Amino acid sequence: MMKKDKVLVLGIFALLAVFWAASVVTSQLTDDENTNYETLSTGESYNISASAPGYFSGVKTIDAENTVLVAITLFKNKNGTVENKTCSDSPGATPQPGCPGPTIPPPPPSPTPTSGPPPLPSASIKIDRAIIPIPATEGSVTPVSEQLLIKNIGSNDVTLTLKINGQSGLSLNPSRLTLSPNQEVPVFITGDISKLKANVYPNTLTITNTDGSKINGKASLEVAITITVKPADNDLFDFSIALGTDKKSFYAGNEIPVTATIKSIGGGGSTFDVEVDYELKYSKDSSGKAIFSDTDKVVGGPEETVTKAIKIPKDVKSGNYNIVAQLKDKGQVVAIATAITIYINGPDGGGTPDGDSGGLLIVIIIFMIAGIASAVVYVEKDKIWKKGKHQARE
Asked: Which of 185, 200, 232 is the last residue of a domain?
């Protein structure tokens, strides 16, 4: 569950508690419960009136052109008789004798006093890239030489601590730096990876504020550094993978479309019968355990492109993940594609889906807290149009 969703759920439970404490009785009336409603055209809009035994009738004016659903509140008649009285719950309506007065919302809660010093302001930092792929060949003596630009876009000086977590022997220079406002400094990433065997090696560069305050509203910034070491004797295939979408961020439970391209480049002829192993790995898991793995057989040639849907489990942590693919011929790994790094928003608060409707739910629940017995009649658009047109012809 996303952090914003948790706040929403807590807000709903709090409002429900107030709802029950006020002893409000609210129910929904349907046509089967002998609810009557009439629709009368008033030009560009419609008057909807509704009534039911034991309730005062209610009325609302709506624009049927754009209205899909209208809710009319009927207030309970304490005498239990049917009276020719109309009560309106519309804002600004004049109260009628025997009808409840307008609902007065409760005052906002007083702010909770806090103790201790105020929290430190969040630093504002810009980095020129969040993913650094490093391709290499097994046995290559070419050293790693990468650069990351870090800029202070805030209004105060900031001192940062940088650290690389991984097992590939990379180092940073500098590992600690102080930036004045608008200052940009390069950080150099170096290392000797000549002894690494063919495989994928994930690393994470973590940037934290030395005084313990947040950076860009977060506890730390992370840069994914992925080293892909390919076999040295790959003279048979050209192998690569790519995302089948422009997205680089996904949610737990989603599917990631991946395309793999295999091209025969000699030695084994123009056709091939090979296997492609797919894995999805958390970049911070030094054990290399995959949270998704599957194998597909590919027969054809001299060049084939295949697609694969990688299913993300629903209980993954938020963070950077690597999509790894290996090409096997007769059981032997003959090629490794450069890993793809993506970001996954997990149920631990990594992100919030678009189109959140929490505010609407809270407004509806607040509207229900009326402090009196009432019922709500829902009239659908097709019924509004049918009754409205019928009476307009009459």
From this structure: 232
Side by side, the strands of the sheet bearing 26-29 are 26-29, 374-380, 69-75
**204 shares a domain with 238:** no
Does an H or E element contain 189, and which? strand 184-191
- Same domain, residue pair 162 and 149: yes
Which residues 6+ apart lie within 8 Å of 34 measured at CB? 52, 53
Question: How are strands ordered across the β-sheet holding 158-165?
Answer: 131-137, 221-230, 199-209, 158-165, 176-179
What pLDDT does 280 receive?
A: 94
Residue 159 CB neighbours (<10 A): 12
- Considering just the CA atoms, what is the radius of gyration of the chain in Å? 32
**pTM, whole model, 2 decimals?**
0.56
Question: Same structural domain for residues 174 and 251?
Answer: no
Cα separation, 226 vs 132, in Å, equals 6
Residue at 118 is within a domain: no
Q: Is the pLDDT of residue 317 over 80?
A: yes
Query: Where does 42-179 show beta strands of DSSP type E?
Result: 46-51, 58-62, 69-75, 125-127, 131-137, 144-152, 158-165, 171-173, 176-179
How many domains, the chain? 3
Total count of residues recorded for the chain: 394
Domain that holds residue 29: 3-100+370-393
Q: Alpha carbon 126 to chain centroid distance?
A: 22
CATH number at residue 322: 2.60.40.2550
Q: Is residue 105 part of a domain?
A: no
Asked whether residue 330 falls in the same domain as residue 384, the answer is no
CA angle (267, 268, 271) in 5-degree steps: 135
Spell out the residues 6+ positions from residue 279 whose beta carbon is closer than 8 angstroms to its own. 290, 292, 293, 323, 324, 325
Q: Which two tokens stand for residue 112?
A: 């909770």
Of 394 and 87, more confident:
87
Q: Is 12 strand, coil or helix?
A: helix
Q: What is the DSSP string of 21-62?
A: HTT--EEEE-GGGT-EEEEEE-SSSEEEEEE-TTB-BEEEEE
Average per-residue pLDDT for the chain: 74
What per-residue string of b and e applies to 324-350 under the rule 16 or more CB within 10 Å gives b?
Answer: bbbbeeeeebbbbbbbbbbbbbbbeeb
74 CB-contact burial (10 Å; exposed 0-12 / middle 13-18 / buried 19+)? buried
